[in-house]
Write a structure and sequence with these properties.
This protein is mainly beta. The protein has strands at about 1-5, 10, 15-25, 30-40, 45-50, 55-60, 65-70, 75-80, 90-100, 105-110, 115-120. Strands 2, 4, 5, 6, 9, 10 and 11 form a 7-stranded mixed sheet that branches.
Length: about 120
């Protein structure tokens, strides 16, 4: 299973970006999909997550500005980021809890995408 993230870039404060992450490979089912970020010198933190049923969870710092969504048919998760701030600057990683069928039945593994840089200038 691979996760391919895209959509990062450089934007001015107050601007918007939309991140996408597509999962591919031996996928039977995907439970939670989410976005994390890591700024220089800081720990990786959860930005937003969404279950297969559409239940969402956001970090307090992005509530009201970011929206996570997913297309289950396309195994894709999105992060719409509005009113961006310089403190949102980080590498953004997508994450997915993927169920795959193998010799011993259905097993779940957490996968990470390669990261996409988001830079917000003041």
């Amino acid at each position: 299973v691979q996760l391919q993230a895209s959509g990062g870039g450089l934007v001015q404060s107050g601007g918007s970006l939309r991140l996408s992450c597509v999962a591919s490979g031996n996928i039977f089912r995907i439970n939670v999909m989410g976005w994390y970020r890591q700024a220089p010198g800081k720990q990786r933190e959860l930005v937003a997550a969404i279950t297969s049923a559409g239940t969402t969870n956001y970090a307090d710092s992005v509530k009201g500005r970011f929206t996570i969504s997913r297309d289950n048919a396309k195994n894709t998760v999105y992060l719409q980021m509005n009113r961006l701030k310089p403190e949102d600057t980080a590498v953004y990683y997508c994450n997915a809890n993927v169920g795959s069928l193998g010799n011993y039945g259905l097993g779940y593994v957490n996968y990470w995408g390669q990261g996409t840089q988001v830079t917000v200038s003041s």
